[in-house]
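Run log, item B.
One chain of 85 residues. Sequence copied directly from the ordering sheet:
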Amino acid sequence: MNNKLIFKWWLVFFAISAVGGFLAGGFLGMIFGFCLGVFGAIIHQPEMVKPLVMTICPIVGMLASLPISYFAFKFAVGKILKESN
């Protein structure tokens, strides 16, 4: 296997997982932040919501990006194996 091929598909993997993870994590983090904000407005305790949002949203965003990283890795490795044969 040559290094140019590996580097090319590593860049593809990195781009897909970075952009896809950013978008999925940001979107789900935004949804959870919105829901927690509405919850804080309903119970009239907005000071309780900020620590929740700052804790839960990054965790949800990270968990949302994991499947995208997995599928991008699977795609890139599959292409490397096909091209190397």
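Observations after the first pass:
- Helices lie at 3-42, 46-84.
- The first helix runs from residue 3 to 42.
Flagged for discussion on Thursday.
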